[in-house]
Design brief:
The chain contains five helices and no strands. It is mainly alpha-helical. The protein has one domain. The longest helix has 26 residues. α1 packs across α2, α3 packs antiparallel against α4 and α4 runs antiparallel to α5. The chain starts with a helix and ends with a helix. Helix content is 75%, strand content 0%. It is elongated.
Length: 110
Amino acid sequence: MMINEDYKNKIRESVVQKFGDMGVDEDTINELVAISIESLQEEITQLQALLDGENLDQIGFHTHTIKGVLLNVGLDDDAKKFQEIKHLFEEGKSNDEIKEITKTRLSIFF
């Protein structure tokens, strides 16, 4: 699934606010937005493939990367949602529970 336009606009608005206040020019802001969206889409695609299988070992890696991208663009509240996924493994949640929670977190993009 592709990131919807509403979420892309959310990223853009956050980047404009965060980096515009620092005096970053519009071309650089546009590049940051494009790179962030592309990175998120790649990680989401990888994560969705993992969720279709039984080997969940790499979920933590991809959710950590998603969290990092979201923090970089200033979407801290959304990033926290992905930080929580790492703790599911530590808490001993079942694969089904981890899959369901991860899918719920991913729904913010669609």
